[in-house]
Write a structure and sequence with these properties.
heterodimer; A: mainly beta; four-stranded antiparallel β-sheet; B: mainly beta; 11 strands; globular
Chain lengths: ~110, ~120
């Protein structure tokens, strides 16, 4: 199975900061990665798919990059509503469609 | 909109059936996936069913114990869970994929239903 290693697990930041979360796949997954945001008590929300395509309605301060095995989610100009937990997921064929371990973004 | 039903408390070795109902649409054009989240933990992909031909897929952790299926009207997807264990305790979410196949991003999620396996 392909493993998705996400880092850091926790990130402390301030409003207005630029932050980057990374995800590394144990094998080449081309651009088949999605990023989700989850707030406490809520289901995840799709932010980005195909490594860098913004889902409809997602603010442009979110961006994704990478291909192959190394990927990143960047938030430029962190807003109060962005404090949440973020997960990556590989979705190329062959289950399981593994998620990364998550990154909790907290207010500094 | 997706709504899950059927969660609750069950003893180890017991069974439970979860339902995921689509409101305002059918599962005719979108594959459906179940994802679970143990308390305070991350997300785990559990099972999926394609829209096209109803093919099913499972995580190794549930293979042989869980069965995903849908009704003939394609408005409800089920997750039959047998031989439940304590480590199956989680919030179970159903989510639709961005198309007919299971290996696509999950673009719409239900609110989740809690399954607790405990004696």
């Amino acid at each position: 199975d392909i493993q998705m290693t996400q880092s850091p697990s926790f990130l402390s930041a301030s409003v207005g900061d630029r932050i980057t979360i990374t995800c590394r796949a144990s094998q080449d997954i081309r651009s088949y990665i999605a990023w989700y945001q989850q707030k406490p008590g809520k289901p995840p929300r799709l932010l980005i798919y195909a490594a860098s395509t913004l889902e409809s309605g997602v603010p442009s301060r979110f961006s994704g990059s990478g291909s192959g095995t190394d990927f990143a989610l960047t938030i430029t100009g962190l807003q109060p509503e962005d404090f949440a937990t973020y997960f990556c997921q590989k979705y190329n064929s062959a289950p399981p469609l593994t998620f990364g371990g998550g990154t909790k973004v907290e207010i500094k | 909109q997706l709504v899950e039903f059927g969660g609750g408390m069950v003893q180890p070795g017991g069974s439970l059936r979860l339902s995921c109902t689509a409101s305002g649409f059918t599962f005719n054009t979108n594959a459906v996936t179940w994802v679970r989240q143990a308390p305070g933990m991350g997300l785990e992909w559990v099972s999926a069913l394609t829209a096209r031909d109803g093919s099913t897929y499972y995580a190794d952790s549930v293979k042989g114990r869980f069965t995903i299926s849908r009704d003939s009207s394609k408005t409800t997807v089920y997750l039959q869970m047998n031989s439940l264990r304590a480590d199956d305790t989680a919030v179970y979410y159903c989510a639709t994929c961005r198309g007919r196949y299971y290996d696509l991003p999950l673009d719409s999620w239900g609110q989740g239903t809690l399954v607790t396996v405990s004696s």
